[in-house]
């Protein structure tokens, strides 16, 4: 599947983005792209104009200095996940963001994008509702603020009006002594949740319980909150929270996740110390996955071709550094990065297995971070630096330690998923650095759950990654 | 997980290519001037096509042409569909492109050719097809047409049931599954007008079946058709029959006169690639008062879809023939109805009928133990087959095995259930014993040595991830007394491959590996003869040693001795009388002669080239798997805690590769139990169209898997090999299913064991609630 043609534009300011978005009725704003690009690929979304917000670095920030947490809409999920201030002050948010997709989708996916997309199965809207977040919307005429309870209107529907752009999310400081957690139930690791709950408790003072899967949009349960404040036991609170769901099993799931979240919040204690909902995901020293765009885009003069649908789409000349070497080429706005790497740069070691971001075969590193190349437009990689499987071996062709371990542990059969696994595992090990040796088997399994293998049963892959992690811990001399 | 050697040398010859991204898969091949295609597909499960209106070339950028059934009229025939032995098939064969009628959602109606895939998809939106919707059949028991019928009664079944102290009944169903290789299907077709040669690069399991299928569809002999199979990113049965899209592409290449390429995307793959399983059964088992099995009746219903593809009828036939499993059951009556439904056809998917049979029978045996109040293991022990060869009532001859030992080992490896802590969970354990049909038919190989002393083996069987290159090189190298590195393997190109049948059904090592062994033996014989000529003596006086040949009395050390692990019965080596001779020693003569004047090197006798064909009896792998599961009472969520898998694939050539096959198969069975299921709604729409709906297991869902090993060599081939490709997927399914039923106190449920299904079983009171809607995931 390939997207229908559209015009691609990269604004240099929020004002410019707003102007462009109001120009065409079917224009869309592209943030992290982890939900929008699959819809483009499937042609379920068919905008004539795509306005890429990613160049707007001023929208990517996390600021917890003034007590509240201010999150720029373009902040990556990975940045939220890695921020110590979030883990300490709003551990519920850290829990929830770790449940969103996989490491290679969180490096691109944004907080604002998740809110604006308003998928009823998404974790972040629920977490933000539980925390009483406020949403700042910009429009050419100015800005307004929408409160948590008024933001989400239904599946894929929010209070964001045409011509408005979500610019910031403000999460108030938690009440003193508040304990909080988020838990969910999903079929497989990283899959969309069937049920989830975010809870905040400050005994006698504050109670908040927000539900995922309790209806067509994230909602708080006033009844359960009142019971919790009145001192009801967790089981009763969980029952009340789940009571609104129509299906008996759905109620059981909601009860279970509410009870788990309450229990986790209580053991955890105030201030976010204590256990996480699941092993901390991606951890990196880098502050954020966003790097300055190196201005690698130029419009080719005279390269405009008239399309069937009446949409004129200029060919765009881009330059991308792959494995240390520069590749230039002309792409359409709709050209996927995976297709550019494979068919224009000719680096066919990166494989395409689903074009909707689930299988992980196409994973590459973008400035060192794992990303799905099928969920990025080629033009978005202009001026950036990419590592593919072809770049993992040494300059003399000597296999890396990880590549050798894959072979030694029989971690590959047909080899089609292998490049995605190597890229993901390499990024994981490098991000953990000196602490790679602390990786447990279940952590490795969770971190690699965004890559699917149909041949090996994963056992050799997990063993290979663990063996390299252990050796790194033991130091370079031991192995 | 089995022990791994220290990280060092690559475990397989294939590995370095794959680890560096150098492997060439179908979509990695790019020919100049290629046009790409997209398909216009039916949105209806059943409809009459009233009209197809295609845009003119020029109506859309890059558009070359739109081809329909009318464009291909006279050039293509429907898919060949031979009947499995004893089966009666309806003449309802899959067409290349739909003409007057569509019978499933996604059926290809028109092929749009354009400069790029994106432009082909653009133009496909402009093709207007008018449909007149017709009623759709989705339940195979409500179908009005059998595409396939098969029935067999053997032994005194009625007498067995009349004499029975107990009759136990069960109704079982396995949903449709998507094979989901990570590489989808695809092909490139090029027509060369000069020689009227059509070349098709195809992501397939082997070149032979595409060659035969396309040959029949396109009416082209092998002299005018060449099939090349590049490296393949997994198949699991789903690439054994060419896609109708590939047939359209091949026919179109001749019309369009430029290379055409189709790279299937995941949505096409989930919608239109033939699916697996989709079978139901009503079974009855007669037992005497001692718990001895007297007879079995099985009525099987297979949901075959809208048409017959070439192997659509095979899995239900295999299921029927294996329905008596690993037990001594003297009488059996089996009936199969392969129903036409308005869904994509089914076909082989890992196990291809074997897991189906093992699942139904092993659930029934547990049910019998429950009803008779006897221990599940004891009931099996009382009835397991204990001597081989064993002829089943339905007519299979099991060659070898030790089923009880497999079962005992699996149970021992699983350990006691008390080993698993379980707060608020229902615990269960289960065991499944299975017999797997493998081998059969034939394969061939060509072995040669070049003047530079390098060996080349051309094998008819070609890999799609299994590691043939490594395994076949090892088989040949051991016989040639050389290092594996000295042996190059070639496969996959019908223009140069020796003829064969194909890579499927766990048959590569036993059949094609035996052909490689035979070819290597014949090359040694040819080398001895050539050396004898050079030495001026009789070939009988020449022995094969490391590095070449020498006269027998000059050979240092002793003559090569017969292999220590020779099969118990004399092997039957291929077609009799064509140069057969005793196999040389596998324990290689260690004498290395360097610059030895008495040594006639391989280079000195080169070039030599020999062929061998190996005809194989059916061989029967077997095994037992055991599983422990835990079901969360609050959510119904299933955790598989541990799986022990003991597979008897005879003599293993590459134990690590064979174990890799078992692990992969076990995890496919795990996915089948946890989440995998193709769901169709009442109108026949596929609700599992993406990997978000069709959820595959990830690394995070996989429990510890402990492998055991029992080896009963097959007497039917020189390697003593059976098959390892499917056992993992066959044994783990009934083991987990029985563990789930055990955890539920005997309540039977069919997979997948979703949280919702299990929770409802644990909370029957919730079922009575009014208005509880059935949830679709």
Descriptive notes:
Chain A has 479 residues and is an alpha+beta fold. Chain A contains 17 helices and 20 strands. In chain A, the strands form 5 sheets. In chain A, strands 15, 16, 17, 18, 19 and 20 form a 6-stranded mixed β-sheet that branches. In chain A, strands 4-5-10-6-7 form a 5-stranded antiparallel β-sheet. In chain A, strands 11-12-13-14 form a 4-stranded antiparallel β-sheet. The two termini of chain A are 45 Å apart. Chain B is an alpha+beta fold and 777 residues long. In chain B, the strands form 7 sheets. Chain B has a 7-stranded mixed β-sheet with strand order 3-6-1-13-10-11-12. In chain B, strands 4-8-16-15-14-9 form a 6-stranded mixed β-sheet, sandwiched between helices. In chain B, strand 20 and strand 21 form a beta hairpin. At the A-B interface, helix 12, helix 14, helix 15, helix 16 and helix 17 of A face helix 1, helix 3, helix 15 and helix 17 of B.
Q: What would you say about this model in short?
A:
The complex is a heterodimer of chains A (479) and B (777). Chain A has 479 residues and is of the alpha+beta class. Chain A has helices spanning 14-23, 36-41, 77-82, 84-89, 91-98, 103-106, 111-117, 123-130, 148-151, 222-229, 234-242, 248-268, 337-344, 401-408, 418-432, 441-447, 459-474; strands at residues 7-9, 27-30, 49-52, 62-63, 69-72, 134-139, 142-147, 152-154, 157-158, 165-171, 179-186, 193-202, 206-212, 219-220, 298-306, 312-322, 325-331, 363-366, 369-372, 385-387.
Characterize the quaternary organization of these chains.
heterodimer
Our measurement of the CA-to-CA distance between the termini of chain A, rounded to an integer number of angstroms, reads 45 Å
Helix content of chain A: 25-40%
Spans of chain B with pLDDT under 50 lasting ≥5 residues?
1-8, 561-594, 771-777
Shape annotation of chain B: globular
Work out the helicity level of chain B.
25-40%
Shape of chain A: globular
**Number of helical segments of chain B?**
18
Low-confidence stretches of chain A: 277-312
Strand content of chain B: 25-35%
Mean pLDDT across residues of chain A = 90
What's the arrangement of strands in the largest beta sheet of chain B?
3-6-1-13-10-11-12
Count of DSSP H/I helices of chain A: 17
* Radius of gyration over C-alpha positions of chain A, nearest whole angstrom: 23 Å
Instruction: Tell me which protein chains meet in the greatest interface and how many residues each side has.
Output: A-B, 96 and 96 residues
Number of strands of chain A: 20
Distance between the termini of chain B: 33 Å
**Main β sheet profile of chain A:** 6 strands, mixed
User: Structural class of the helices, strands and pairings of chain A?
Assistant: alpha+beta
